Amino acid sequence: MESPPCRTVKWSLLRITGIFLVVRTLQYLLIFLTPSNQFDTSTQLLLDELLTNSQDQYKFWNRNIWNKLLSWDAVYFIKGMVGSPDRDVPEYEHEWAFSLIWIQLVRLISRSNSGTIELYRALYVGVLMENILFYLSAVILFFLTWKTFTQGSIHYSRGSAMKLSLLSSTLFILSSGSGFFTGLYSEPLSSFCTFLGMFLRESSIYYPSNGSYGYTFDWYSLPLYSFGSCLCFSLACLNRSNCLLLGIYYVYDLCHLLRSKERNWYKIILFPIISGSIMGGLYVRQQYWVPFNEFCPDNGGWCQDILFKFVTKQSLYQFIQKKYWNVGLFQYWTLNNLPNFIIGLPTFIILNISCVYFLRVYPMRHLYATCIITLSFSFIILLVAHFQIINRVCSFLPLHLWYIADRLVKRWSLNGEKNHKQLNGDDTIVKLYLYWLVIWVPIQTILFAFFLPPA
Amino acid sequence: MNYGILTLLQWLIILFQLGTTVTANTESILISIPYDILIHRHLHLYNETIPSISLNNTYMQMETIQIPAMKEDQQVVELKHLQTDASYQLKLSWSAINPIDISNIHWEVAQPRLGMEDDDYPPLFLIFDYDTTLLNNKVGGVSLNIAVVQTKFKIPVDLFPLIAYICLIATGVWYLKDWILKQILYNAISL
Q: Is the complex ipTM more than 0.95?
């Protein structure tokens, strides 16, 4: 694997930083200019209840920026972050659906010397951390893209790989959920952990130089894989349960090692089996064991259907999603949700086309696991979830960003600037998606600040 | 204004109409008060303790009321100074940190108060059911914002500044989209 040229890396990182600062400044300016009388007027009630001095909410910057960031799920996050001295677990059952890891992380940093956490202090710290994690995710994605597209069966020139890396990170900053990430959402933490985990996994893979599609793991890379990537994927998964799909990497690696000629059982056990088991075990602990000890057997409902000891038929998260947000198979498929499907459709299409692209059009074997994860994710969202959240929760996936970046690089290198209007099917899709993105991101930011659907 | 912007506008209006029906912790209804509404008066809902909200010389008004915790009941709110032959949005918002359920939101017209028979404004009432049984016991109950907003073309008038703002931004971005993409993306790959 080649190292990226140092000068170009510095220039690229400076460019990513510049674009990040410009885009974020414009987004916060849009929020500032959004009318202060939100559609959903409950932020004032929230502030009345959680602020020590409720008059603080009327200060100029609080009224015109900070209060507007307390929309939608941010309400639950801020309640958890402010917390209560006599309670270190959520007050109500449904609050368990919101990342306790993200909440605890912000609490840890925003706690004052006296041990109390003031609402605006938690909000400032949370928003700052959100932005830092979002920026770092873009930076890590740059290196992940470089590593992914300069080794194994993929033969990109240094120049093309560098452009691809830079474009992927830029597209991530402009991604379809970035309006929400101006506030307190937990997705950037998952993006950060996922990209870092993918980078560490990719770094631990050894591709033979004979150009074959096979790969293996060197023993020296065991800490990177079984400690580094496992820790990152587990954190991403504990933060947002949809990241459980990252476990597919371990299943894929397991199948690959089992089918390889070498079939080294020590490697099979110590690499994918150990890592997958740790990740799965932590998930079971968080989703089943802890809630069972907290709520059962006194609680009815999901506590009643026990499959094995503390493993219930439904996890607490599934139960909450179904009971409080009506999440379930085809539950969202109603006529009045049609606009929400339209809003999520561009992202759904681009996710699926990127899978087809890397599976069929330009098959890249070592992206197959990422394709499976992306396909599984998009169809779970289509069938089960509130469809429009695909714009926000797909932020841990890089495949569609790579697809768009790859098309832009290919189109440019083939046609140059003069002929860039000659488009094929993929290029047209990419162009339309980019147009949609440029229009959608500012509108989403404004709608979020105004506390108006869609969420 | 080109086709793309017009489509966007139409989409926004549909979205607002859907959005005004229900959001996570805001419930609302659109009401149209017919000019002959007083013919249908039949209820006796007056009670000195019920809260009221008045739309006197303004296009929107919001009041905060308290409902008791750990209870399942009906709440009535008097709507003052709403005109006949007009449409309004009635909106209820509560903080999502309090798990309460609001349902069966509707409105009724009542007999005028004694001595108020010739009043220009019909005696209207907002009625809804609430369920706060999941809520932990809170002294003083839980706060609920009730807003009454005039509507034009079935869109609450307080949304007009936002619609204008979104249209302005969307139009600007639409005309600048190629320049924006060139600055952000194409300049990166042409170097």
A: no
